[in-house]
Write a structure and sequence with these properties.
Blueprint lengths: L1 H16 L7 H56 L11 H35 L4 H28 L2 H21 L3 H13 L4 H11 L2 H30 L3 E3 L2 E3 L4 H6 L1
Antiparallel strand pairs: 1-2
Helix pairs in contact: 3-4, 3-8, 4-6, 4-7, 5-6, 7-8
Length: 266
């Protein structure tokens, strides 16, 4: 009697929980776990898709940035390497400065070629000590090597190469004036020391040309400058023909064929 009541009670509870369908409790729990697994898999898939999209976008942005940087570098290199040797508006002052540098190099070569053949006779006229011949020839290079280091440092600090060229030209002119107006061997030696200061502008000049040119143009530009100096050494002896004809006075100073090179270079 009691067993039949308990069985009927179980049947009523099962039919009330799911009308029309008899489901065991284990099947209900199994369906719930499957649904949770499906939802978790969907969430994971959504996260994976989002992360994949983010990585793709990041990769696209990186690639775009790399392409933009490469294009910018290419444009910069093209704009920088648009021929150093050109005569265009806005760039002519650079070419005029480069022409001045070439003229400066040419005159340094002429100075060696003009003074060297006459310095021995000039020293013998002022003194009998032959040691001054070596001192006068070497003093020019000694002062130039010392001032080259100083002017190179000034050029690195200020970047005013044109100003250094003007200062060097002033020293060259002053030294050569002393060379041809002097009536004392010590003043002649001092003149060559002062003129040698002008050679100190050579290192800043070459450094500035190297900064303004690309790798393909640098060798050509420096070769032109050094070629102008060699041209001065080649043509310089021809100026001795002009120096031999010098025989005049500037005030109380007698300009002749021995001190004429100083007048010519000044």
């Amino acid at each position: 009697m009691h067993g039949s009541l308990i069985d009927s009670h179980h049947r009523l509870s099962l039919t009330s929980s799911a009308p029309g369908v008899l489901l065991p409790s284990s099947s209900v729990h199994t369906l719930t776990d499957n649904e949770q697994t499906k939802s978790l898999s969907k969430i994971n898939n959504s996260f994976d898709s989002l992360s994949t999209m983010h990585l793709k976008k990041t990769t696209v942005h990186i690639d775009h940035a790399a392409e933009t940087t490469a294009e910018t570098d290419a444009e910069a290199s093209i704009s920088h390497s648009t021929n150093f040797f050109r005569w265009t508006p806005g760039y002519r002052h650079v070419m005029l400065t480069f022409g001045t540098i070439c003229l400066f190099a040419f005159m340094t070569g002429v100075e060696y070629a003009v003074i060297l053949p006459t310095v021995y006779d000039y020293v013998r006229k002022l003194t009998n000590a032959n040691i001054y011949v070596g001192l006068i020839l070497s003093s020019y290079s000694i002062s130039g090597s010392i001032t080259g280091i100083i002017m190179g440092k000034i050029s690195d600090m200020t970047g005013k190469v044109k100003f250094l060229i003007l200062i060097s030209a002033v020293f060259e002119i002053s030294g050569n004036i002393l060379y041809f107006v002097a009536n004392n061997i010590h003043i002649v030696l001092l003149g060559r020391l002062i003129a040698g200061v002008g050679m100190g502008a050579v290192p800043p000049i070459l450094a500035d040309v190297a900064h303004r040119t690309t790798e393909g143009e640098r060798t050509k530009a420096i070769s032109v400058i050094l070629g102008c100096r060699q041209l001065g050494l080649l043509i310089g002896p021809c100026f001795t023909l002009l120096v031999r004809l010098m025989n005049f006075r500037i005030g109380s100073v007698h300009v002749h064929n021995l001190n004429g090179p100083g007048f010519l270079m000044a």
